Amino acid sequence: MESPASIEIAKSVLYTFGVILAAGSFSGLLAQKLKIPDIVVFLLVGMLLGPELTGIVTITQESTLNQLILIFGSCYILFDGGASLRFNVLKEVWITITIIATIGVVIMTFITGIAAYYIIGVPFIIALLLGATIASTDPATLVPIFKQVKIKDRVSQTVMSESAFNDAMGAIVTFAVLAVAMGSGEFSVSESLIKLLKESFIGIIVGAVAGYLAALLIAHEKYDFLAEYAPVVTLMAVMGAYLGADNLHASGFMAVFVFGIMLGNKESFGFKAEHGENEKLEEYVLTTAFIMRMFIFILLGAQVNFGLMNKYLFGGVAVVTIFMLIGRPLTVFLCAMPDRRAKWSMNELLFMCWTRETGVIPAALAGLLVGMNAPGAQMISSVTFIAILMTIIIQATTTKWLAGKLGLLVE
């Protein structure tokens, strides 16, 4: 008797998940031996398993399953990153984070856009659309790097916070430029600023409420009746924070990140988990975040379109090189150097200039543009994947080496 189509699909998905888990486990071990961030190996293994080479992993970019993995995985990694931040450090560097996550995105958009206009030869508005798509850094990439490479707190927490807070700005700038490119609107600085403030404020409020409620249920002296189920509470809260903010047309990723900050700093609000509960939760989060990284970056690698990349290879590499070596350093120095409160050293600024990997968020924006048949979408998708490959393979692998040279590594 033939199996129903739904059962065959379920078997196929189960097989793919098994392959990803097996390949990811060996990849993580290999990354440990090579002493490089595991996301680099995951990405390369994903390219090997994808339809362009072996065809073992065939989950498409536009599929519901892929979107589910990317959204939940990114949310969980963001929560993990937020939970590792500390209020006393953020108080020192909040000015830099605010400026670089907003004005910094605009600076990167224009520098990349100008480079694409002259090198690739596309209309300036399309070049700007490319710049906006890849302008934001990626928390799903950066959080795992700083979990594995121990960098001076204020530097790592600034870069992680920037990556969490600039996704809203990146999306706003992208769709503002898209409206002009498609002739359906004009860019308005005031409207975009109001939208950014609204999305940010609502996202922060939703995340703060979710974090406080979660801390109340797992670490309050009287009301911690769900203390034994802390991992389940965090899962519910991650989903609730993202969907709550998203339904209110705010940044779900920002909400999840703030939720992580609140839960990670619960002692500041008078909450304290019972002995052993924190360790149990941390171990659970560590394992779950590793699995999420595994799925996200193996799938991301499997979806690289080599044919499309080859079409814009030389121009894309040139644009991304300018993006990495000129755009990012200018952005860091213009946004961080004036912050007298943080008192950044030259070595700290140089490290931040080099650390700005591109990953899931820009890939998602590029995918949306392709789905909308936006002008220049194929070129933008191609250069976005070139940026992902170059920044992750080149920058992520050299993070520890550079931090050591600059004296920023900690035990």
How would you characterize this protein structure?
The protein has helices at 5-34, 38-49, 64-83, 87-119, 124-133, 139-148, 153-181, 189-219, 230-247, 252-264, 277-302, 306-311, 313-336, 346-354, 360-371, 377-405. With 411 residues, it is an all-alpha fold. The protein has a single domain (68-405), classed as Na+/H+ antiporter like fold (Up-down Bundle). The longest helix is centred in the first third of the chain and has 33 residues, at 87-119. The protein is globular, with a radius of gyration of 21 Å. It starts with a helix and ends in a 6-residue tail after the last helix. 49% of the residues are buried. The mean pLDDT is 86.
Essential attributes:
411 residues, mainly alpha, Na+/H+ antiporter like fold, 16 helices, 76% helix
Distance between the termini: 61 Å
Shape: globular
How confident is the prediction overall: mean pLDDT?
86
Order of helices and strands: HHHHHHHHHHHHHHHH
Helix content: over 70%
List how many beta strands DSSP finds. 0
Please identify the top-level CATH class: Mainly Alpha
Our count of domains comes out at 1
Strand percentage lies at under 5%
Can you describe this structure in just a few lines?
This protein has 411 residues and is mostly helical. Helix content is 76%, strand content 0%.
